[in-house]
Design a protein that fits this description.
By secondary structure, the chain is α+β, with helices and mostly antiparallel strands. It is built from 4 helices and 10 strands. Bound molecules: copper (II) ion.
Length: 193
């Protein structure tokens, strides 16, 4: 191989690294991006990831053709297992928001990406509790912020479809609690300082 070819191959490899792996790193480590807050610069952004392991076969048979689009390999939660485990008070903890706790400065944009296979909500609640599907609540009472389900615009606008994201801005200083109103064990706390 000529020196020129070697150089080209090396460049291609570096480009693959940058294009292929850089976004993954951003998603896995949901940390505040240190962007200086000078005039004209965009505000910092932190990312939260919603994860689940819905099993397309059993979910879509019951809930419609494209309800669960999970392409994850390995173990997947069947619809029966989801209900059974939630009812027993031992819900599938792989259905989760990551990280569990996040510290950020006031003015930071909170971006929530649904990398799971089915819809979730990212709903701010005063206190954690049950969602709007009673059998998934493991005996906990529904929280008022979730109770009305998607009939409420306030709940509907916190919905994140599979593969999409929402951005929250203007979170005040202090502690904020967020949970999924469908799978209420999906919870996280955001500390704004
Ligand atoms: Cu959910």
């Amino acid at each position: 191989m000529t020196a020129l070819m070697n150089h080209f191959v090396a460049r291609l490899f570096v480009m693959t690294l940058i294009l292929g792996f850089a976004p993954t790193v951003t998603y896995i480590f949901a940390q505040e991006q240190p962007r200086p807050q000078h005039r004209g610069n965009p505000p910092a952004l932190v990312q939260v990831v919603a994860l689940d392991e819905c099993d397309p076969t059993t979910f879509n048979a019951a809930l419609g053709p494209d309800f669960c689009k999970n392409i994850a390999l390995g173990y997947q939660t069947t619809l029966n297992d989801l209900f059974k485990k939630a009812e027993e008070g031992t819900p599938d903890l792989k259905w989760d928001f990551e990280p569990d706790t996040l510290h950020m400065h006031e003015g930071t944009i909170l971006s929530i990406v649904n990398q799971g296979g089915e819809p979730h909500t990212f709903t701010e609640v005063e206190k954690f509790g049950g969602g709007f599907i009673k059998v998934l609540n493991g005996g906990e009472a529904p929280v008022p912020e979730c109770e009305a389900g998607f009939a409420s615009v306030a709940v509907a606008r916190t919905r994140i479809l599979q593969g999409s994201q929402i951005e929250l801005t203007g979170l005040s200083k202090g502690e904020h609690h967020f949970q999924c109103c469908i799978h209420p064990w999906m919870r996280m706390t955001v500390e704004v300082k």
